[in-house]
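User: Please predict the structure of the protein below. I'd like the answer in structure-token form so I can feed it into my own downstream comparison script.

Assistant: Understood. Taking the following sequence of 137 residues as input:
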Amino acid sequence: MAQNTAPIFTQTPDIQFARMIATANTDHTMATGVSHSLFVAGASGSYVNKIRFKPSGSTAATVVRVFINNGGDTTTATNNVLYGEISLPAITTSNTLAQNDFEIPMNIALPANYRLFSTTATALGGGLDITTIGGDY
């Protein structure tokens, strides 16, 4: 069986972003409730370095969950897998104090047409700006 012995690098940078203002979704399979698309892999696959969450207003404490979807229907639980989650504290916006950034390191290659989604465990007031940083092969 032939093996790739040379390193592979992305050809085109790919930064995708979304604003999440959502109702609570406590489904750990993402098959029901509200979810937000964060990233869609390119036609030859993509590499995702990290996902950054930045509060865009005052928010309640919550858990943000990140799912990998195989390109199929998100309402079918077996098409989704919970990849990671991060706890975010309650945040009050300020004009004199910077808001914290929160990151989930990914460092994974995604096959063509795979997608990343996220959900929040509690309703957000002000929302989150979410940036996914990667590249397409």
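That's the full token string. The beta strands are 12-20, 36-40, 46-55, 62-69, 80-88, 102-110, 115-120, 128-136.
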